[in-house]
Specification:
single chain, alpha+beta, Endonuclease, Chain A, 4-stranded mixed sheet, 19% strand, disordered C terminus
Length: 129
């Protein structure tokens, strides 16, 4: 696991979200599998090449059409420079991957995340933008 993947792994742990890093799904290994049907991919520079984009498209198509999974891709640099923004916006506020159904529970989780992220920022581990 690289630095970005470790950061996301630790962040998901802090949310008490069930997830499996470097998990094999059929012919592919995904960066993060969030049961029952979500995948998070952290894309490094290779993914911006024509070959990388082609392979990502094939993988995403297979995960979506064969397994019915949702796939979220986050750029490696975005994770390293600002883990809070993409994760809060994409996962918690929209509930896309965590799958929170209860609005009151969602508000509680968002409050806890904001508190934790302020603490992270004060420790200079992450910058919140």
């Amino acid at each position: 696991m690289n630095e970005a993947e470790r950061s996301v792994d630790a962040f998901l742990d802090s949310l008490n979200v069930t997830h499996m890093a470097q998990f094999r799904l059929g012919p592919y290994r995904v960066d993060q599998f969030l049961p029952p049907n979500s995948v998070l991919e952290i894309d490094g520079p290779y993914h911006d090449t024509p070959e990388g984009r082609k392979k990502d498209k094939e993988r995403d198509r297979w995960l979506k059409h064969e397994l019915g999974f949702r796939v979220l891709r986050i750029k490696w640099g975005d994770v390293i420079s600002n883990i809070a923004g993409p994760l809060i916006e994409q996962w918690v506020l929209r509930g896309a991957l965590i799958g929170l159904q209860n609005e009151a529970h969602l508000r509680t989780v968002v409050r806890r995340l904001r508190r934790d992220l302020r603490q992270y920022e004060s420790q200079s581990l992450f910058a919140i933008r």
